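Protein 1 of 2
SEQ + STRUCT:
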Amino acid sequence: MGKVNIEIDGKQLTADVGSMIIEVADEADIYIPRFCYHKKLSVAANCRMCMVDVSSLPKAVPACATPVADGMVIQTQSDRAIDAQKSVMEFLLINHPLDCPVCDQGGECELQDLSVGYGEDVSRYVEGKRVVKDKNLGPLISTDMTRCIHCTRCVRFGQEVVGIRELGATGRGEHIEIGTYIESTMDSEVSANIIDLCPVGALTAKPSRYKARAWELRESPSIAPHDCLGSNVNIHHRRGEIIRVVPRENESINEVWLSDRDRFSYQALTEGKRLLKPKIKKNGTWQETDWQTALNFAVAEMKRIIGVSKGEEFGTIVGNNSTLEESFLIQKLIRGTGCNNIDFRTRRRDFSKDQYSGVRAGFNFPLQDLDTMDATLLIAGDIRHEQPLAALRVRKSTGFGRAMAINPFDGEYNFRLYQEIQPEPHLLAQEFACVLAAAAQKQPDKINAEIKDWIEGITFTEQHAIIVDELINGEQSCILMGVYVQEHPQAEVVNWIAEQVARLTDSKWGYMTQGCNAAGNKMAGAVPNQSEFGGRATPGKNAKQMLTEGLKGYLIHNCEPDVESLWADQALANLQNAECVIALTSYEDGRVSDYSTVMLPIAGSYETSGTYVNVEGRWQSFSAAVPAPGESRPAWKVLRVLGNLLDTSGFDYESSVQIRDELKEKQENSRDKKESRKTPPELHAASEEETKRDSLGLYMVDPMVRRANALQQTSKASTHPISISRVTT
């Protein structure tokens, strides 16, 4: 790309040919006021607030829509530029209501800020102001459309970023209105990003409306705890109460966006039925007690059951959004007592290759690379509902590349698929094997005799060949497997096929995981047969065995297996029949209070410090934004005390940072002992019964989301079932 030399406010700059003036100015930290321009959206040039003075032009021009030219001299503070900007501001304020004292955007409103510098204290217009009817966009977004200045950021966001045009403009001139045309709510899983985009108070967050002013809030950085991307957020809180959650810019993960699930789940912490004191169930009745009594009771029961059964009849289930530090301590604690039954994979059926599993995160490439893929093959992924922001990245890549899918269900896509194959769920591995056969034929020099024998007799169609061609011909290509793959009874076969197809086509590959810290849980050793960072451990029972076969005692940390697991009914029955269930939980409602024997209140997300490891293996640490209510304690502190009471060595930590640093040191001194995946046995169809189970819903994935009132009022709140394809093969 060529370069040009320009001057802005006397500053000599070099810019790319085709760049707009406002882009160059932003890079040089030269501020130009704007309303409609946004770096992630196309240029609309309809607010005209960014008018600047270009010496070679007869009048002021919009900086967002004027490309630079060699030798251009630009003034942003000249009389001509300032006069133009003041004139624009005068027009914008003609119909704007004077309700700053009651507007929820007061104190952080772009129009309010700019009117101080470019507005007048007296209006020349005496006519009545127009009034626009407010729109009901659902339980997440509140509207005051009379304030709208028609910047169209919200419209462009839906059309360009999300791929779902839920808002649009009707009418012309002073009669223009932003709305849904036919009255309806906004149902996109990322809809609330228009709140951040709106430069005035026309669109605000309904759950936090009228709760606080911007200058009253303190801001704390944190990590969203609901999907495997690890979106960066800022927690806005006042006097220990979370008021709202907003995105924190990180181009390599969530850019400037945030899913609705990550934005509004905080409501569970402020409005959910929190467990505030330890409780012990006596004669079927819950009784509040002090921490020492509750801990002593829990320790005595653990010692009794583990001692009598030599660890065989006690098991630990860890939640997917437990921190790295918590997972490490809990596996260290349970193994220190002589018990090896621990797992977090409550939605996994295939444990056949546990002995070969190393410390690998879900991706072997940066998440950001999804933006630039020439070819993306999705395997059994409902990506919009599993990882909404990853879906935005895949959509971005389809602007020049192609997305394809092999899905046993009708996924909801916000991008166009070039090829789609819909096998029956129990034939997923066989269908994917056809792609491997096609890749082997096109790349015969890359296959060995073992793979050649394995694909013997597998035929493929032209559609499979086209998919392979796209993967091979793409300069950058990837195979992306959804959460459902890891729930499939042939998950390890599908993983092996993905690895082989990626190798043959020179593609990258990775798989999405359930929850926000599955990679961290694996690293910490919260699995049977493996301690931290792939170290060998005495084999124990996995989650399926613990929940379906039944044990005498359970330690449940930050999860509800009766809702989240694939064997929910069996899990509930076995938990109810257990002699003792120790629950480390933030909430006292739900069925956890029915089957638990003792409940220990732990801090929720944003109330504790810790580390999450996202799907690409990135460690992201955070501190507590607000204190936990009542007598709740951070889970790592509760586990530390339990470890001491159980006479387990190495539980003298004073902070979660010490635990993290110890893990960092262990990681540096360890080697990933993962063995290569061995070629699976002859391929057969999976069980139809096991493959037709419904998935968790978008707003059902963890205890926190399930208790967020606003999310539960949305149209997507009910369980989102896997829609089984009826296409026959």
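Protein 2 of 2
SEQ + STRUCT:
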Amino acid sequence: MIRLALYVGIALIIGIFAFWLAANPGLVNITAFGLEIRTSAAIAIVVLLLLTFVFAFFWRGLGWLIELPAQVRKAREQSRRAKGYDALELAVIAAASGDAQGAVKNAERVKMLLDRPALSGLLAARAAEAVGDIAGAERQYQTLLEDKRTALAARRGLVRAALERRDYHAAIKEAQAAFDLEPGAKWAFEALFDAQVAARDWAGAIATLAQGQKRGHIVPLAAKRRRAVLLAAESAQAEARDDLDDARRLAEKAVAAAPGFAPGAALAARLLVMAGKGWRAAGLLEDAWAAKPHPALALAYRDLKEEEKPKARAKRLRGLVELNPDHRESRIFAAEIALDEDDVMAAREAIEPVLETELPPSSRLCTLMNQIERKAGNRKQANEWLTRSLSAPSEPDWSDLDPEGPAFGYRDEDWARLVYTYGDAGELIHPRHERFERIPLNPDQMLFLEAQAEEDHSDDKTPSPGDTAPDAAGVKEELEEVKIEPAPVKPKRKRRRKTAKPTTDKDKTGAEPQAIAAKPDPAAPSPDLDVAGFPRQPDDPGPLIEEVSDEADVQSRKREVH
């Protein structure tokens, strides 16, 4: 409506002007260059308007011709930019879709079409990473180091490339440069710390951890636990090079960082005992037990005093239990202490709360109940618990400790893994479980237990009050009565166990042995064999007192503190 009114107004103005011009005719006389032109005013005005339009058109055309090359270049640039953005879009879509070849192809087009070296370089580097061209990605990232805007991103790419080819020293170098360039970059802290742990640079990882904690890149609790693991690993490294003073100092710092870290406490206690500071080792173990009980701590505390009477030792061990009496490990340790003193009732009372809360009971608990029932003279119940232990779930910690061996025989890769499993989650898992090294059950053991169960059901005898608990020799006679078929040949296992030597001599009772596959030597029992003569399973804590020696107390055995 407004436009129509405008047009009507213009038409009225032209009409009024034309009417005025017609009402006032005039004469125009032009003399120039020897020429004289005479015409009316109306025609002169029309000619002037025409000449104005011609001149304007000519001037416009001349300007267009002058600007034509620039316009052509601009059109080409716009077309090229549009194609470049199209290629960029296709490259991003291909990378997100997992089309590595398409990402590389379109990244090359972006590099040719767009005058954006940072964008095209990053895209080309990521595309090279997508197809596994690590060397090509590194070349692209090296070119991006010259630009301050892309330097940090280039460092990150170089760290990824170094980790991809397992060059941890190069990764440490690039991550350290990135962390120095931007301390607030959390990825730089994590990359540097992870590379140092992978390279077993414990001291460097401790320093990086301190810087990361100051910057708020890690929560304080996880930082303390990680520091405890790193200090313990560095202590073990110092011990390996016979620098015992430094190893002891680092181990004590590990305990101070996390008192509940059992490997650090056991390591510190062993080094302190070697230095003649048993009282200090006892204090560390007591603090660790109060924070978080662990079966290795119990063994280490038990072996602090070698020449000690059984009653005095039991009293001292009960003092350790009282530091954290309601914990599961404290109850189990109390049952073991009572069992060593032949107090079956006390052992039952200590272990019953654990059995009531854990359903089904673990293999470790079943084995302990088997020992209690054997001590009480209940052979049938003992065999039932032993049978249950075969299918019971195992415990992922150090519940299968060898009393004569090291509790924490860590390798470097175990320490590195523990930095994260314990440091971040607080979980202390035996490396054997993480490596799937659980030993399968022996077929002879299965046959023996099945034969024992059948014999118990067939006999169905109730022991008289005068009967005593069967000793090792009686159990061996029962084993000899069962004829065991030879087990099928199996491939060799990684972990070998000692086998009993066959013999044809008469046993202590004078009875001739039956036909069996192998008979254990009663004169030299193997620590890997249990009371029945077959290999001990990982959850079996060891033979009972009377099964080892009738004269010597089992607690007087000298063991190295671990």
